[in-house]
Amino acid sequence: MPNKPVIFVTRNLPEAVTQRLTASYEARLNPGDAVLSAEQVLKGAEGADALLVTPTDKLTAELIGKLPASVRMIATFSVGYEHIDIAAAKARGLPVSNTPDVLTDATADIALLLMLGAARRAYEGERAVREATWKSWSTTYMLGTHMTGKRLGIFGMGRIGQAVAKRARAFDMQIHYYNRRRLPEHLEHGAVYHPSADEMLPYCDFLSINAPGGPETYHWLNAARIARLPDHAIVVNTARGGLVDDTALIAALRSGKLFAAGLDVFEGEPALNPEYRTLSNAFLLPHLGSATIETRNAMGFKALDNLDAFFQGRELPDRVV
Ligand code: DGY
Predict the structure, then answer these.
(1) What mean pLDDT comes out for the span 2-31?
(2) Which residue has a Cα nearest atom 4 of ligand 1?
(3) What's the pLDDT at 2?
(4) What are the tens digits of pLDDT across the range 125-141?
(5) What integer pLDDT is reported at residue 79 of this predicted model?
(6) Is the per-residue pLDDT at 1 higher than 90?
(7) What is the best residue among 98, 101, 107, 288 to mutate for testing ligand 1's pocket, by most ligand atoms within 8 Å of CB?
């Protein structure tokens, strides 16, 4: 069909998503899956009707300003959209959609994996088995810390924060949370609301970061806030690396102020602060929060649902702007 809208897709997509995309659109794909420079994005966008982007594409105000007039919509394959200058998109009248809800469970699962991995020293244990340094069972060998019954503080009680809380309740954890708005009581399930995040920190044996990235939360977890955590607390981050001041977190992991950290996201990823690699009490994953086949297909289909709505003249189901 000659009149199919042209979609420029910046990264490789799961096969099922590519199949649906190519059935409805003229797709410009990136089968090599290289992360594209701003110049490459602009080149690929020439004559395209819409862009399907991911968090690895930095759509700055400058880049958005240079997009060809043919581009009428941006769909991101992610729930987070701090990689897109939303004000610039709005100023240009470019609608932007994201992929909420469908990655909530997968991301909350990874938060629990990080909590357990950090608390029970999973990285050190795995390494000991693989490197054959494990000598024998002993009453004091590689002791971790209990998760059951501890206090979990959640910074950002949106969909993912609530899903983390739900899972943590199965470990009899007491949930504390900070959110810009208090949840209605029926969604709190007994969680203790703190109107200020700083006031919550002393109650966090575990702290899970689940707030969006961007300038408002940049380096939110800094040295002063870490100092407010109980000694030997555990920090996990499945949100965005930029929420954490890496220098402060690394210092606290080295000094023993914190027992451990579990991190799935990093400022500047994949080029994380190299000191993390040297810390045995850091349990590290390469941004796998939404990385299940089911979830990545669902994210792709959601991005396509939004593109379909746009090109059929319907309201976008997941409009960010
Ligand atoms: C998102 O969708 O924002 C996630 O970080 C991708 O896993």
Answers:
(1) 96
(2) 78
(3) 59
(4) 999 999 999 999 999 99
(5) 97
(6) no
(7) 107
8 Å CB contact between 119 and 146: yes
84 lines ligand 1 (CB under 6 A): no
Strand 174-178 versus strand 192-193 pairing type: parallel
Angle between helices 15-24 and 293-311 (to 10 degrees): 10
pLDDT at 138: 97
Q: What's the token pair of residue 62?
A: 């400058």
Structure-block tokens of residue 72: 């009428």
Burial 179-211 (b: 16+ CB within 10 A, else e): beeebeeeebeebebbeebeebbebbbbbbbbb
Contact status, residue 75 vs residue 97, Cβ threshold 8 Å:
yes
User: Which DSSP symbol is given to 247?
Assistant: H
Q: Assign 112 to helix, strand or coil.
A: helix
Kind and range of the H or E run holding 123: helix 122-130
Work out the burial of residue 212: count CB atoms within 10 Å of its CB; fewer than 13 is exposed, 13-18 middle, 19 or more buried.
middle
Closest ligand 1 atom to Cα of 299 = 2
Count of CB atoms situated within 10 Å of the CB of 139:
5
Instruction: Find tokens 């240079």 and name the residue.
Output: 66
| CA Rg value for the chain | 21
Q: 307 Cβ partners below 8 Å, 6+ apart? A: 5, 7, 25, 50, 52, 73, 75, 97
pLDDT tens-digit profile of 220-240?
Answer: 999 999 999 999 999 999 999
Establish whether residue 80 lines the binding site of ligand 1, counting it when its CB lies within 6 angstroms of any ligand atom.
Answer: yes
- Rounded to whole angstroms, the Cα distance separating 169 from 243 reads 25
210 CB near ligand 1 (under 6 Å): no
* Closest-CA residue to 175 (of 158, 159, 157): 157
Cα 92 to ligand 1 centre (Å)? 25
Question: Nearest to residue 53, comparing CAs of 101, 94, 97?
Answer: 97
pLDDT digits (tens, 9 = 90+) for 195-210: 999 999 999 999 999 9
